[in-house]
Amino acid sequence: MGRADARRAQARESRRAPKSGGIRRLFTWKKLLGTFFGIVLLGMGAFGALYVYVDVPAANAMAERQSNVYKYSDGTVLARTGKGVNRQIVDLDQVPEKVQHAFVAAENKTFYKDEGVDLKGTTRGLLNTLSGKGKQGGSTITQQYVKNFYLTQDPTVSRKLKELVISLKVDQQESKDFILAGYINTAYYGRGASGIQAAAQAYYGIDAKDLNVTQGAYLASLLQAPSQYDWATATDTGKRLVKDRWAYTLKNMVEMGWLTESERAQQEFPYPDKPKPAEGMEGQAGYLVEAANKELEKQGVSAADRDAGGWTFTLTIDKKRQKALEKSVDDQLESKLDREGNKIDATVQAGATSVDPTTGKVVAMYGGEDYVKHYISNATRQDYQPASTFKPLVLASALENESKTQDGSLIGLNTVYDGTSKRPVVGSDTPFNPQNEDDRSYGPVSVQKAMNSSINSVFAQMIVDVTPAATKKTALAVGVPDKNFPERPAVSLGTMNASTWDMAGAYATLDNHGRKVTPHILQSAEHRDRTVTPEKPKREQAISRASADTVTKALTGVVDAGSGGAANTSAYDAAGKTGTSEDNKSAWFAGYTPELTTVVALFGEGDGGRKQVSLTGTANSGRASGSGFPARIWADYTLGALGGGSGKTFDLRDVERGEVPTPPTPSGTPSEDPTPSEDPTPSDTPSETPSETPSETPTTPAPPTSSSPPTTLPPTKSPELPPQPDEDDGQPGERPGANGLLGQ
Fold first, then answer.
1. Among 244, 206, 223, 194, which residue's Cα sits nearest to residue 87?
2. 3-state class of 682 per DSSP?
3. β 312-315/68-71 pair status
4. How does strand 348-355 pair with strand 312-315?
5. For 702, which DSSP code?
6. For the chain, which terminus, N or C, has the lower number of CB atoms within 10 Å?
7. Residue 280 pLDDT
8. Buried b (16+ CB within 10 A) or exposed e, 153-175
9. Residue 444, beta-bridge partner list
C-alpha cells in the first residue's frame, strides 16, 4: 500500500473516532441514571398533581339504588319493588363476622393491613388495558369498592388511574369496616342480585344476618365470575372451579386464623337453592303492596321516600291464610267460571278481606284475579253497595239506643214486626215500601226470623223506629265509611257504598264485643336511616258489649237456620249475614268466628270497571246471591284458615232478646209473633212457594210458649200510601227494592 492509500485510511479512521466517542459520551451510566430518576420524579410529580386534582366523587347513579322489600308477617318475601336494581343495603353488623372474613379471604387477604391499593395488580391491569387484553383481577377490596361505588366498569386507562387515586384517599378517610360494608353491598352476585342481602335471598332464601360461613364463602367465591359459578347454570367445569375457589377461601381463613382446622374439616359445600323468578306485582302481591302503600302514606312514608328504595315493609298478612284464601276463591269460584267464553263470567270480580278481630290485623286479602290484569282492588274498592250485610248494624243501633217500636215496645230479638212485602213504613217523612225477595210476605215475624230470612220490610220499619240518623251514627262508630250515606229509610238495605275491608272492620267490631277494630295491613317499616312504627289503632268501645253480643246471637241464627246455611258446619262456631244488592250487581257474605272475621263479595263489573252489571247467570247458576259463591268461599277459607276447625265458641253475655209488646194501635205498627218460624226460607234462595197474601182480618197466633204471654195480632195489611219517590240508593233512576233483589 502506497503513501496515498495510507493517508486515505488514516482519514477514514479519524472521521470515525469522533462519532464513536460521542455515543459513549451521550449514554454514560450517569446520564442514564439521571434520566431514569428524572422520569420517576416526573411521574411522581404527575401523580401528585393527579392526586390533588382528583377528588372523591359522589356515588354513581346505580350504586345507591335499592329495591324495597315487602314481606309476609313471618318474614318471607312477598314482593320487591324498585327501579331495576335488586339491592338492599345492610350495615356490616347485620353480616356475621365469619362471613365478613370469608370475603376478605377470597378477595384480599391483606385488606386490613394494606393502604387500599395493589400497585402490582394495578400495573398489570393497566398493561392489559393498553394491550387490549381487557380487565384482570388483582385489585384490592378498596379498589373494587371504589370502582363499584364511585366509578364505572369501563376498562380505560383514565378510569384505572382514577381508581388508584380515589382508593388511596378513601383508605385514608374511611375505616376498613366502612369499606368492606360498601364492597359487599355494591358487588354483583348474579341472579339479578346486587349486594349481599339480595344475594342471600336469591341463593339461599334467607337474610344476610342468617348466613353461615360456608354460604358466605360461596357468595364470596361467586364474585370472581357470577354467571359461570352459579351452581344452577354452571357447566361441569364451572362447578369444579367454584368448588375449588370455595375451598381456597376456607383455606385462607384458616391461614388467617379466622377458622380452625377442625372447623374447616366440618364444612360441607352449601349447594344453593334453585333460582326463583323475582317477586313482582303479579297475582295478589300487587293488591297487598298497594294496600300497604296507602297505609304508609298515612304514616308519613311518601311515594318519594319509597322511590328512593332501601325499605323493608313487613305486612300483617299471614302467608298460610293468604294462600288458603286464594285457593278457596280458585276452587269455589274461578274453577267454575268461563272468563273467555261466557260474557257474564267475564264480568265477575271477587274481593275479600280477613281480619283478626282482637288486633285488627288483616291476615289475608283477595283483590282480584291478577293485579297486572285488573288493577282495581276488589278488597278495598268502595263503589258497590254492601246490601243486607248492613241490616245487623240497624239492629245494633236499635239495641244501642234502646229504641222502641211505634207502639213503644223495646226492640230485641223476640220483638215481632210485620213482614208483609211492600208494606209502607210508618213514622217516616220519607215514604218507603220495599219489596221482599220474590215479593214474599211473611206476616208477623220476630226480629230473629227477619234476620235469618233478611226480610226487607222489617228492617225498613226498624230503621224508622231507630231513626236513620241514629243508625248512621252507630254504623260510622263501628267502621262503615261515610260514603254516599243518605239518612233515609232505604239505607236499611245497605244502599250506601262500602268495601269488604270496611265491612270486615265493622263485623270484627261486633266479633270483638263492641270494641272498635280498625283493619290495618302494615306491621313495620324499616330503613337503614329510619324506622317507622305504625300507630296502634284506638280500641275504644264503639257500642256496648250487650248490643254487640246480641247482634252476634242473631247472626248465629242466620248461619244455623237462615240464608247463611252454606257456612254452617260443626267445625267452628259462626255468625254471618248474606247480602245481594239492587239488580244483583253485588253479592256478599260477611261472617266471623271467635277467632277470625272475613267478608267476601262478588261484583258485576263491565266496560273496564266503568259500569256495574248484574251477576245473574254467573257460572250458569242463575242468581248469584250472597248465600251462594260468597258464602261457599267464606266457609272453605275459614275451615282452612282455622286449620280444619276450632273448638272456640262465642262468649256472649247480656244478650237482649227484647220484650213482647202489647197489641199495637190501628196505625199499622208492627206486630209480634212470639214463636219464630221453625222452617225459615233463606232469603237469598228463590222461594219455591207462592208469596203469602196479606190477610185483611185479624189472625190468631199459635199457642204461646212458656216464656211469651199470649197476644192478639192486628191485621197485617197496612193502609195504602200515595206512590213514593225514588230513593237515593247511589244508582240514579233505580228504585230500591223494586225488583225484589235489593238488600237480600
1. 194
2. coil
3. parallel
4. unpaired
5. P
6. N
7. 85
8. eeeeeeebbbbbbbbbebbeebe
9. 418
Backbone angles phi, psi at 722, to 5 degrees: -65, 160
Q: Residues 6 or more apart from 277 whose CB is under 8 A from it? A: none
| 3-class secondary structure, 707 | coil
Contact between residue 637 and residue 589 where contact means Cβ atoms under 8 Å apart: no
Tell me the Ramachandran region of residue 658: left when phi exceeds 0, alpha when psi lies from -120 to 50, beta otherwise.
left
- Cα Rg of the chain (Å, integer): 39
Q: What are phi and psi of 61, to 5 degrees?
A: -60, -35
**Residue count (the chain):** 744
Distance CA 128, CA 126 (A): 5
| Distance in angstroms (rounded) separating the CA atoms of residues 461 and 438 | 19
Backbone angles phi, psi at 471, to 5 degrees: -65, -45
SS3 530: strand
| Burial class (CB within 10 angstroms; exposed 0-12, middle 13-18, buried 19+) of 63 | buried
Measured CA angle at 354 (ends 348, 356), to 5 deg? 175
| Location of C-alpha cell 372447623 | 263
Question: Could you tell me the three cell numbers for 61?
Answer: 347513579
Separation of alpha carbons 428 and 714, rounded Å: 21
Cell of residue 710, nine digits? 199470649
In one-letter notation, the amino acid at residue 245 is: R
Instruction: State the pLDDT at residue 710.
Output: 31
The structure's pTM equals: 0.75
Which set of grid coordinates corresponds to residue 92?
356490616
pLDDT of residue 302: 85
Indicate the Cα dihedral angle 11, 13, 19, 25, nearest 10°: -130
- State how far the Cα of 513 lies from the Cα of 544, in Å rounded to an integer: 7
* Contact of 659 with 415, CB cutoff 8 Å: yes
Walking along the chain (744 residues) 10 residues at a time, the average pLDDT comes out as 62 54 56 53 48 51 79 95 82 96 94 80 55 55 84 59 75 90 92 92 95 97 92 92 97 96 96 85 95 92 84 97 98 95 95 97 97 93 96 98 96 97 96 95 97 98 98 97 94 97 98 97 90 82 97 98 95 97 95 98 89 94 92 98 96 73 37 33 35 32 32 32 31 33 46
- With both helix axes pointing from N to C terminus, report the angle between 468-478 and 456-466 in degrees, rounded to the nearest 10: 100
DSSP strands (E only) in 325-370: 348-355, 362-366
Are 532 and 300 in contact, with CB atoms under 8 Å apart? yes
Residue 133, CA atoms < 13 Å, CB-side half-sphere: 8
- Calpha distance 207→58 (Å, rounded): 29
Burial class (CB in 10 A: 0-12, 13-18, 19+), 132: exposed
Query: Which class for 613: exposed (0-12), middle (13-18), buried (19 or more C-beta within 10 A)?
Result: middle
Distances from the Cα of 595 to the Cα of 445, 512, 521, angstroms: 32, 9, 17
Q: Residues 696, 717: contact at Cβ < 8 Å? A: yes
Alpha carbon separation from 182 to 38, 179, 199, 412, 483 (Å, rounded): 39, 5, 15, 68, 51
Joined grid coordinates for residue 112: 386490613
Please report the pLDDT score of residue 155 as a whole number: 53
Cell numbers standing for residue 381? 274498592
Nearest 5°: the CA angle 150, 151, 153 is: 140
Instruction: List Cβ neighbours of 362 (8 Å cut-off, separation of 6 or more).
Output: 291, 316, 317, 353, 354, 355, 501, 504, 519, 520, 521
Per-residue pLDDT at 114: 86
Q: Is 135 left (phi over 0), alpha (psi -120 to 50) or beta?
A: beta
